[in-house]
Specification:
By secondary structure, the protein is α+β, with helices and mostly antiparallel strands. It has a single domain, classed as Roll (Thiol Ester Dehydrase, Chain A), CATH 3.10.129.10. Helix content is about 20%, strand content about 35%. The protein contains three helices and six strands. A six-stranded mixed sheet has the order 2-5-4-3-1-6. The chain is elongated.
């Protein structure tokens, strides 16, 4: 089974629009929370990667909205690494209501490795090997599912 993480949060009032539902761009923020939690629970942090010169920029994002979240709803972001390439990686997300399990959004992001000048770079071999191990469940430090 592939390693995935669960990040739990609650919808804040500032995340909703005039209709009382979560403004669509906030789902991307929640994907970022899931992604950074995933990296940390897999054994490293974004800060560590950046100190080592591994900068990751979102190059693509897609969201499929299935239902709306509202103020104070408990939310669960399930994150998994879905692909690794020589210059980047992709993540898949399920955003659900934590209390009912109702699916709200399916999302995906692709990230590319860049250097400090903002130019496309190759993902370092040690990072790629580590992520491949995590993706295949070989190095999941927190078990198959980690909770936040």
């Amino acid at each position: 089974m592939a390693f995935e993480t669960i990040s739990e949060l609650r919808v804040r009032y500032a995340e909703t629009d005039q209709m009382g539902v979560v403004y669509h761009a906030n789902y991307l923020v929640w994907c970022e929370i899931g992604r950074t939690d995933f990296i940390r629970r897999a054994g490293r942090s974004y800060a560590d990667l950046e100190r080592d010169g591994v900068l990751l920029a979102v190059s693509d994002a897609s969201l499929r909205f299935l239902a709306s979240a509202r103020y104070d709803d408990p939310i669960r972001v399930v994150t998994a690494l879905s692909a690794i390439g020589s210059r980047g990686m992709s993540f898949a997300y399920r955003i659900e209501r934590a209390d009912t399990g109702a699916m709200l959004v399916r999302a995906a992001t692709s990230l590319v490795c860049i250097n400090r000048d903002g130019r496309l770079a190759t993902l370092p071999r040690d990072v790629r090997t580590w992520l491949e191990g995590v993706m295949h469940g070989e190095r999941a430090h927190a078990g198959e599912v980690a909770r936040g």
